[in-house]
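Objective 1b of the project was to move from sequence-level analysis to a structural picture of ligand recognition. The entry below was assembled by the postdoctoral researcher (A.K.) and checked by the PI before modelling. It contains the amino acid sequence of the target and the SMILES of the bound compound, zinc ion.
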Amino acid sequence: MAEVKVSEIPDEGLSLSVKEDPAALDLAATGVRFLEPVAVDVFLVKADKAVMATGRIAVPVAFECVRCLREFPASLDIPISTQFVPPPELPLGEHPMPPDEAEDYYYRDDGIVLDDLVRQEVLLAVPFNPQCRDDCRGLCAQCGQDLNRGACACAPPPDPRWTVLRQHLKGK
Ligand SMILES: [Zn+2]
Ligand SMILES: [Zn+2]
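Corresponding predicted holo structure:
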């Protein structure tokens, strides 16, 4: 776990390059496999009580195409531009809600936990419906053939408009 003490960040800022193990980060998202450790390059600089963080996160991944279900390689390259702020002071026993207006992160007791930032940014960067290519033809709904590799022998599915018409004619 990468933790940085705020009191140890020099005035001119601190440059960090770390590799984070995806498993240790608890990075689990459906349809994505992390092929290598997550490379985090970040520059931290204090600004009053906040700590500005800029840099990038990069990791090679394999996505599963939502249409043909094949894995395809990709890479995540995420620019970071955020800040860590101390949590608002609350009466004892109450927990601060995450700040909702911005991509701020909290630090606590002088410790900046980079893992929170890395986990959040990586999960946000994973596309909801990854496709191996824009015009992926997907799988045949009847036989499961990968239609990118050629057409199958299945008849095209019946046009639903004909079904309606047929039912209508039958009813007469
Ligand atoms: Zn595909
Ligand atoms: Zn088929």
